[in-house]
Design brief:
In the C-terminal section; belongs to the class-I pyridoxal-phosphate-dependent aminotransferase family. This is HTH gntR-type domain-containing protein. Residues 10-78 form the HTH gntR-type domain. Keywords: Aminotransferase, DNA-binding, Pyridoxal phosphate, Transcription, Transcription regulation, Transferase. The protein is of the alpha/beta class and 480 residues long. It contains 18 helices and 18 strands. The chain folds into three domains: 12-77, Orthogonal Bundle (Arc Repressor Mutant, subunit A); 118-131 and 373-479, Alpha-Beta Complex (Aspartate Aminotransferase, domain 1); 152-370, Type I PLP-dependent aspartate aminotransferase-like (Major domain) (Aspartate Aminotransferase, domain 2). β10 (250-255), α11 and β11 (286-289) form a beta-alpha-beta unit. α17 packs antiparallel against α18 (459-479). The longest helix is centred in the C-terminal third of the chain and has 25 residues, at 371-395. The two termini are 37 Å apart. The relative contact order is 0.12.
Length: 480
C-alpha cells in the first residue's frame, strides 16, 4: 500500500501528501484510522524522516489528519477545517465533482420521497407545504411587458429593491437603501458570490455547530476551511469563537441568529451585541443569514438583525423563498456599495444572468396590499403546527426539545446518547423522514423536523410513527 511514485519536478513531500489524500478519498484510509509512524513511513518511502514530517504537517494544517497525544496520527473523522492541497485549483475541484457526492442516507430519503407513498411522512424537505404558501392575484402580464421592463441594472430590479427596503424599514425600523441591495437567485447564490469574491482557497471561516452550512459542498469546492463553534441557549458561544479566531486566523464569521437552521434557536439580543463587538475588535466581517426573518412568532424587537447593530461590518442575506416557495428563487444581499458592485461584476463575468420574471413576481407579492395579512396568517398556522409537534416530543421522556420562536424547524435531542446506524435506519423503515444531526455536525444525537409539514390530518400518523420509533430505539439502548 505504501508505495510512492516519485514524479520528476514534483517535491517528494507533495507526492506523499497526494498519495495519502488519494487513500483517504478512495476509502483505503477510513475516518479515525491510524497511519503508520513517521519512522515507518520514511522507511516505506525511502526518504528522510523530516520529509515525512513536512508532508504530515501540511495535512494537519489542511485538516485531513490529526495528531493525538498517545494515539499517533489519525484520519480526521469530521469535515471541520478540511481544505485542499496547496496545488489544487478550481478546475481540479470540478474534476473531483464534490457536488455529485450524495450521502447514502440522503439517497434513501430522496428515493422514499419519489415513491409518493401516502404512508411516508416527509418532514425532511426544507420547504413549506403547498397548502401554506400564500397565494397572490397578479395582473395580466404579457411577454412584451417583460421585454420592455427597463428598471433592472447590475444590482437587480429597482422596484423590488425598493420594496425590500420598505419592508425592512417597517419590520425593524432601519434602512437598507436600494443601492446597498444586490438581488440574487436565492440565498445560496449570494453565499456563492461571497465565497468567490471575498474569500480565497485556504481561508478559514467560523460557523455555528451544528449548522446547515456544514452540509453545503460549495465550501469544499472553494477550498474554504470551516470551523464549528459550539452553541448554548443564547446562540454561538463567544469564548469558543474567540479561541477559534485566534487559532485559525478566521477571515469571516457566518451565523444564522434567528430561528437557526437546524436547531431553531434564536440568538439573544445581549449575545448579538457581544458578537458584533467581538468581530469589530478583530476586524472580521459577519455574514448574517436571515432567511427566516419574516416567520417570527415573537415581536420583531426581540430579533433585531445584526445588520442593524453594525451596518458596515455585517453582510446580510435575506430571501423570499421560505415564504413564496423555493421555485421563486429570490434572495438578496445587503453590503457596502463597493462590495455589492464587485459581486455584481463577478456575477456578470460568470455569466450568471438574473431573470426579470421572478423579480417582477416577487415585487408584486411584496407590494400587494394583502401581503402583511397573508404573512401574519402563515405565521399563526406555523406556530400552531410547531406547538403541536413540540408538545408531543415534550411528552416523550427520551427526547429533549425546545419550542422555537419562529421559522419551521424543531430540533430534538435523543437523551440516551449517540444514535447508531441501526437507529437512523428505523426512521426510514417507519417512513418518518427527518434530517439527522450528522448532516449538520459531527454529532449524532439529534433530529431536525420540518413541523410546517405536520397538519391536523397527518398529525395522528406522525404521532404513531414517532412513538413507535422512540419505543424501538429505547429498547435497543436498554439492551446495550
Amino acid at each position: 500500500m505504501w508505495s510512492l511514485k516519485k514524479e520528476k519536478g514534483v517535491p517528494v513531500y507533495v507526492s506523499i501528501i497526494e498519495l495519502i489524500l488519494t487513500y483517504i478519498k478512495n476509502g483505503d484510509l477510513l475516518p479515525g484510522e491510524r497511519l503508520p509512524s513517521e519512522r515507518k513511513l520514511a522507511a516505506y518511502f525511502q526518504v528522510n524522516r523530516s520529509t515525512v514530517v513536512h508532508a504530515l504537517d501540511e495535512l494537519v494544517a489542511l485538516g485531513w489528519i490529526l495528531r493525538k497525544q498517545g494515539s499517533g496520527t489519525i484520519v480526521n473523522e469530521g469535515k471541520w477545517g478540511i481544505s485542499t492541497t496547496p496545488r489544487t485549483d478550481w478546475r481540479r475541484y470540478l474534476e473531483q465533482n464534490v457536488f455529485a457526492k450524495v450521502d447514502p442516507y440522503t439517497e434513501q430519503i430522496e428515493r422514499l420521497i419519489k415513491q409518493s407513498d401516502h404512508d411516508v411522512l416527509d418532514l425532511y424537505t426544507g420547504e413549506l407545504p403547498l397548502d401554506l404558501i400564500p397565494s397572490f392575484s397578479f395582473p395580466p402580464l404579457t411577454w412584451k411587458h417583460f421585454l420592455e421592463e427597463e428598471q433592472q441594472d447590475d444590482l437587480g430590479y429597482y422596484p423590488l429593491r425598493q420594496a425590500i427596503s420598505n419592508e425592512t424599514e417597517k419590520e425593524y425600523g432601519f434602512s437598507l437603501s436600494p443601492e446597498s441591495l444586490l438581488i440574487t437567485s436565492g440565498a445560496q447564490q449570494a453565499l456563492f458570490l461571497i465565497l468567490q469574491v471575498l474569500l480565497q482557497s485556504g481561508d478559514s471561516v467560523a460557523i455555528e455547530d451544528p449548522s446547515f452550512l456544514y452540509a453545503l459542498p460549495i465550501f469544499q469546492a472553494a477550498g474554504i476551511r470551516l470551523y464549528g463553534v459550539n452553541m448554548d441557549q443564547e446562540g454561538i458561544d463567544l469564548f469558543s469563537l474567540e479561541k477559534v479566531i485566534r487559532q485559525h486566523r478566521v477571515k469571516m464569521v457566518m451565523v444564522n441568529p434567528s430561528f437557526q437552521n437546524p436547531t431553531g434557536k434564536t440568538m439573544s439580543m445581549k449575545r448579538r451585541k457581544a458578537l458584533v463587538e467581538l468581530c469589530q475588535n478583530y476586524q472580521i466581517p459577519i455574514l448574517e443569514d436571515d432567511v427566516f426573518a419574516k416567520l417570527n412568532f415573537v415581536p420583531s424587537d426581540k430579533i433585531q438583525p445584526l445588520k442593524k447593530l453594525d451596518p458596515e461590518n455585517v453582510l446580510y442575506i435575506g430571501s423570499l423563498s421560505k415564504i413564496l416557495g423555493s421555485t421563486t428563487k429570490i434572495g438578496w444581499l445587503s453590503a457596502p456599495t463597493s462590495v455589492n458592485q464587485q459581486l455584481a461584476e463577478a456575477r456578470k463575468m460568470m455569466d450568471f444572468s438574473l431573470s426579470i420574471f421572478p423579480q417582477l413576481l416577487a415585487n408584486l407579492a411584496l407590494t400587494d396590499e394583502n401581503f402583511p395579512m397573508k404573512v401574519s396568517s402563515l405565521k399563526q398556522k406555523l406556530e400552531q403546527r410547531g406547538k403541536a409537534v413540540f408538545q408531543l416530543l415534550d411528552q416523550l421522556s427520551e427526547w429533549e426539545v425546545t419550542m422555537p420562536e419562529g421559522g419551521f424547524y424543531i430540533w430534538a435531542k435523543w437523551k440516551q446518547g449517540k444514535l447508531q446506524q441501526k437507529d437512523w435506519a428505523v426512521f426510514l423503515q417507519e417512513g418518518l423522514l427527518i434530517a439527522p444531526s450528522f448532516f449538520f455536525s459531527e454529532n449524532q444525537d439529534s433530529i431536525r423536523i420540518n413541523f410546517s409539514r405536520v397538519d391536523e390530518i397527518n398529525f395522528p400518523l406522525f404521532e404513531t410513527k414517532l412513538r413507535e420509533i422512540t419505543k424501538k430505539m429505547s429498547m435497543d439502548s436498554n439492551r446495550l
